[in-house]
Amino acid sequence: MFKHTRIVSCLILIFFLFALNTVSASDSPQKTLAILPLKINAQKDLSYLKNGIRNMLSSRLAANTGYRISEASLVEKHAAESGTLSQPEQIQNLGEKIGADYVLTVDLTSIGTSYSLDSKVFSTDGSQPVETYYSSASNENEIIAAVDSLSKDIAARSFHKGSQARITTPTAPSVRYPENPDMPSVPSSSFQTAHPDRAFMQPGHYGQATGSPFIRPMGISGNLGFTKTQNLNYSMQGMDIGDVDGDGVDDIVIASTNKIIAYHIIGNRLQKFGEISTLVRNRIISVNLGDINNNGKAEIYVTAIDWVTPDSFGVEWQEKDFTYLFKDEKWYVKPMNIPGPGLILAGQHGGIDSPFTSGIYELDIVNSALQSKEQLPVPGDINLFDFSMADLDGDGKAEVISIDQADRLKVRQTSGKQMWKGDGRYGGSLRYIGGRSRYAQTEGPDSPLEDIDGAENISEDRIYIPSRIVVEDINNDNLPDIILNKNLSTASRLLKNLKSYPSGEIHGLVWNGIGMSELWHTRKLDGYVATYQLVKDKQNSNKAVLYVGLIMQTGWMDVFSAKESTVLIYQLDFSNQDQQAVN
Predict the structure, then answer these.
(1) What single DSSP character describes residue 493?
(2) Distances in Å between the alpha carbon of 280 and those of 284, 360, 502?
(3) Average pLDDT, integer, range 232-261
(4) How far apart are CA 470 and CA 483, in angstroms?
(5) What is the spatial distance between Cα 99 and Cα 96, in angstroms, rounded to a whole number?
(6) Beta-bridge partner residues of 316
(7) Contact call for residues 173 and 226 (beta carbons, < 8 A)
(8) Which of 93, 295, 396, 551 is deepest in the core (most CB within 10 A)?
(9) InterPro entries annotated for this entry (predicted)?
(10) Residues 414, 378 contacting (CB under 8 angstroms)
């Protein structure tokens, strides 16, 4: 009788909790899951799989459940202090120390060439029975699929969660592309994606293997909704988001060829409130925001070039207009988040006989001028705009994520040792430094390589500036994710100094322990993806906004002479990942 009553009570409780979740997932406090270090049972050394499997489980379970994953270093510290963890009570006590609602244990066993994963889920308060899970792999290449199966079972059985992330459609009128008749009909949602390696074994519409030959990310099916701003009658060279005027609301700053324009974002409309121009001969190649002086307002840092000579400046909004922090500096500049030091202003000098000199430095603004400080510990063959830094694997050491001139994505240690190089092409851009001088070109293609002042050209080849590499923890697993573009073109890979990108996508990638793998990507966008930025909600870490700057129908024209741009705005919501958005 008591058992029957308890079962009925549990069913009523589950129904009640489900009803609350259906009304509003955001009303429930976010649960926390701690994943203990893997226990390995094998005659051979499998330590190299330990962190990879744990990181993949963290990413998937964060995405599939919406739960926060406890920081690995915190879990390891308390686990080491707790000693033997053989009894449920010991594991529950550990969960209380960590501050987790649930604790997950995982055993990896190898017999011959076969592998098995055994896992248990403990509720810290003891309110739920211990759940046991099992998954197997016939060889090492199938471990990802085994982890995938394990994470799905855990999310479904222990946490009553599905497997799909969603992005809610903004309330403003959305713009959509027509259905592709060659694609199968599927229910429309604003974002449909499988999280990290769950999609790896499934061929997609667009994806190709990344990080490992058996990893195949699944493309997004159906339409992807977004809001669109008004068209802008200039060629967009760059864009960034931040609170420029200090009113607590993010603004958008866009660079045209020779102007920096600041807008308030009002729904899907951009309202200009500030503007600053460069010299006509100086083309803007980079604009970035950052509150480096910590006064509550984001400064604007701009790099323009006079062919191969940098001419940078920084400005800040003061009451009704911009004031210069510095100007006419022969540095390439951009704010960067460095694991450990945090946000800094980084810079690289232009060279006498080449566009760049070796060495990238932290910069200070002293008496309206730039002064170099410490040199950044990065490989010597990369330029300032080629890379970002992040602690991808959570080991406390920064990795360098870079894009080369062939649009190949690389992950390296700061020493230069390569950890991974992708097969896909990312970061393609039409912004460049060098090439034939504009003055020489006015005389025709066979004119002498001299500029208007008679000086010889330094470089006849263009050095393309890759699109930014955004580093952000989207799925709240305490590990950074990577957001970047994939501009699509075959001809641009063949012609060194002439590129065209008639369409593009935005991709979210995650480090899976052995390489970068796809979290999601947008549907193909018709036009050149010139720039983008992702901004997390300051009040809700499960939400973010993706801004995409698009130049429409560029064809083979020079991006600096294109005439029409726009901004697409995607509202991302990962807080209730078992439900799809309603359009």
Answers:
(1) G
(2) 10, 28, 27
(3) 96
(4) 5
(5) 5
(6) 323
(7) no
(8) 551
(9) FG-GAP (IPR013517), Integrin_alpha_N (IPR028994)
(10) yes
H-type helices in 100-185, by residue range? 143-157
Amino acid 24: pLDDT: 41
The residue to which tokens 């988001």 are assigned: 241
In whole angstroms, give the CA distance from residue 491 to residue 374: 41
Partners of 336 in beta bridges: 344
- Asked if residues 195 and 163 have their Cβ atoms less than 8 Å apart, the reply is yes
Contact 370/346 with Cβ under 8 angstroms? Answer: no
In SS3 terms, 4-73 reads as: HHHHHHHHHHHHHHHHHHHHCHHHCCCCEEEECCCEEECCCCCHHHHHHHHHHHHHHHHHHHCCEECCHH
Enumerate the β-bridge partners of residue 6: none
Record the tokens describing residue 36, joined without a space: 């203990």
Compute the distance between CA of residue 438 and CA of residue 407 in angstroms, rounded to an integer.
25
Q: Which residues pair with 511 in a beta bridge?
A: 516
CA separation for the pair 515, 417 (Å, rounded):
14
Is 218 within 8 Å of 202 (Cβ atoms)?
yes
Dihedrals phi, psi of 439, to nearest 5 degrees: -75, -40
- The answer to whether 135 and 53 have CB atoms below 8 angstroms apart is no
Average pLDDT over residues 381-391: 96
Q: How far, in Å, are 5, 126, 162, 298, 579 from residue 12 at the CA level?
A: 11, 19, 20, 51, 22
Q: Would you state the structure tokens that stand for residue 151, as one six-digit string? A: 């994470």
DSSP 8-state assignment for residue 97: H
Q: Which residues contact 86 (CB under 8 A, 6 or more apart)?
A: none
Residues 6+ away with beta carbon under 8 Å from 561 = 235
Instruction: Tell me if 322 sits within 8 A of 294, measured CB to CB.
Output: no
Please say whether the beta carbons of 455 and 461 come within 8 A. Answer: no
Structure tokens of 409? 């994505």
pLDDT in tens, 138-187: 778 888 888 988 889 899 988 888 643 333 333 333 333 333 333 333 33
Where would I find the beta strands (DSSP E) of 405-562? 408-413, 418-425, 432-434, 462-464, 470-472, 481-488, 503-511, 516-521, 525-526, 528-536, 543-551
Which H or E run includes 374?
strand 369-375
Report residue 366 as tokens.
Answer: 């002293």
